[in-house]
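Data availability excerpt. The first of two example chains:
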Amino acid sequence: MTTDEPIRLVPPDPDWPARFELERVALEGVIGEWIRGGIHHVGSTAVSGLEAKPIIDILAGVSDLETARACFEPLADFGYLYAPYLPEEMHWFCKPHPAQRTHHLHLVPVGSQRYRDELSFRDRLRADPRIASRYAMLKRELAERHRDDRDTYTEDKSAFVRATLQGDPPQVSVRRMLPDELEAAVSVWRAANVARGAPHGAERTARIREKLSAPDALAFVALGPEIVGMALAEPGRFDDGEGELDPTLLHISMVFVHPAAQGTGVGRSLVLHVLDAARSLGYQRAGVWTYSDNTPARGLYEGVGMATTGKTARVLTRTQIQYGCLLSGLSQVPQAAGGSER
């Protein structure tokens, strides 16, 4: 029984292109007479700055699969092991062994959909760092979930790959947070704070977990398809949060977006869904505090129809301002907001 190597993602290595080039030159000497469309570096190691499994993925164009069978013997002598993975689309090899991989090789007919897709997906990731970052987040989540199941890991990336190839990389959807998504939401909160130079310790992190898990918490997550944003709203109180519960007011406690997804409308989608839920639950008003020098947050709240109330508060050396809105004056949120590796 063959033992498969667990999925392991590593930081980008600047030597990956050189490793590919060495192998390309060697493969030219081994199977060059059967190559018709060149030998190409594909997969995540072909995209600068993208973390990946430390395996060089190689695409070699051939005239057809039947003729390419002549490559099997010389490739075996060169250390490549054949496996019947997607045999109707390609001949797939790994080197030196599934339990310890350094290279993957795909022999694919030139002009086939598989040949075009492998090159196109690589080029989309190279051209758009934002898509590459979202792909990296998806891979991290799937690698943790399917460490010992490569087939499921690959299949769960397929929707993202297909949408990207169609020129429409997956958009963000927002829904209520599920209990088993608590840690993913906390991770987004942590990453956003680290990115803005304000990391928090264990005590503050524990407090965030407690707030997100509270029975009266209205917690949302944004998925694209991995969790890239989170928001929390709670029943409001009189006297700017110091008094008794105000049954007419929903207080938005936090809205955080992962750094890789910032500027893509995730925050707006989260706030709109929170406001829509507040309206459905019978709240009449919504309010939120933010720092006066937090220009992106101010633009976010003003962009969804909230306005300053005139109330301010001093927090250490900074000033907070309050935004609020009447829920009856806002429109409802729309229903949705905006590989070859193995």
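And the second chain:
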Amino acid sequence: MRTRRDAMHCVSTTTRITNKTAYSMKTKILLTTTILITLFTACGTSKKTTNSATYDEGVVINGVRWATRNVDEPGTFASTPESAGKLYQWGRKMAWNTTDERAGIGWSLSTGKHPLFSKKPPKKPKWKKTNDPSPTGWRIPTIKEINSLFDENKVSNEWVTQNGINGRKFTDISNGNTIFLPAVGTRDIGGKLRRDVNITGNYWSSTPLNVFIYYYGCSKDRCHTTVCYNTFGFSLRCVK
């Protein structure tokens, strides 16, 4: 027959077990909460401290994700959407600034007849991945992607002055996303800086046409696509 002491012992034991279980569950909940807070904090910190020179969220315009800034030194973006970045000859990974009158050492003085600066132009010239100055995960747009940006049924564009810099602003009509292409000028075949800063901006495509290369230009009067030799120095705006 169970005595009163036995009954009290059972109750006491049960209480201890219940308290222990509750404590264990509470500990697990606190531990889980701590882990989640740590993860969210880490993610937030990671996003805030991401190197802006190599990271760009980009915006989708007419189905194509465009970077919001020009390419600066190989593998990096310019600091702001209005910043000039650097100028590049097609197919090369060497950058030139938009300030010096002459390009100097390293500029190819080819006549421009051969897209890859070789004695015999290849049948299908290509801007090789190893020579692509785009930051990781990005690339030079094709002429098809550029034409999608110029599709006036889906994208509006206007000549604007943004933070003191002239250029073309493109806006996706359906989602409102925008990019700004600054008119940073160009370098001619000989590497000389043209007097067209704040007047014209020319940007390379990755698409060749025989011995010529497609590029797209923006000025106050229009934006257009055409072809030229690879030895000009143009800006780069990436897609992914």
